[in-house]
Amino acid sequence: MSHVTTSLVLISADGTKIYADAAGDFTKPAIVFIHGVSLSSVVWNDIFHDSKYDTRGHGRSGMPTSPCAWESKRLAEDFDAVVEGFSLRRPFVLGWSLGATHIVDILSLHPGREEYLSGAIHLTGVPFMGPGIGKAGTQFALGCLPSLNQTNDVEKFQDASRRFVNGCSKHASFELKSLCLGNFVTQPRAVTKFVFTREQDATEFFRAGERGFLPLLAIACTDDLIVDGRSAASALGPWKNLKIVEIEGADHMPWLSHSEAMRGLIADWVKEVLS
């Protein structure tokens, strides 16, 4: 069944514009999709049927370059703006790749609010900033970062961008790859630096796991060239309400390489959480 998509430009607490799309029945628990580094919500175009937004500094959202705009609470406030803008009730949040780190920001801004989220999904996700990037990133991905973060050599940046995008999935169409490369090129280099180096406090994130009030689904993909799913999951610690699943043969964009398997895993888990 198709649904009409509503697109909004929302205003976050600090005035940053956040572009968001939503479809479906807003009275039911939605899944809010958060994309990865230097990309945008266009990565979800082939599977979109819920809620998604361009995080600050990406895609059609505002591109703030002041340090205060990259405090952890600011990214959580962007998520809040999406929840409020579409009147979502206890949504699930799905973070893909570096987008999964936003779950830490959300929990940090809302400590102890067990009723705010229904659950969280790490889709080949990096669990937290700082050491989390080193724990989850593959040698291939980590090898791309120096060239992506420097500003002196355009050819190195272009080459690293192409390698990173191509490494996400061999199933991505030329059109999708072109959109992704466009996202890389249009993102200010100062923003890219903030995206990789911003700080966050994961205390509330780990507390949610220890207390078991936030169900977490961690999906790893065996052929992922960007994130080592097993290593990322091991960094979660003693999470009481955790389900870890591997999709055999899937790459960093499992909705392209193994669409039915990914959809089925998420749908079954959501039903289980809500039952």
Automatic annotation (TrEMBL):
InterPro entries given in the database record: AB_hydrolase_1 (IPR000073), AB_hydrolase_fold (IPR029058), Carboxylesterase_BioH (IPR050228)
Keyword Cell membrane: no
Residues annotated as domain AB hydrolase-1: 31-261
Protein name: Alpha/Beta hydrolase protein
GO terms for MF: hydrolase activity
Gene3D superfamilies in the cross-refs: alpha/beta hydrolase
A Pfam family reported for this protein in Swiss-Prot or TrEMBL: Abhydrolase_6
Keywords: Hydrolase
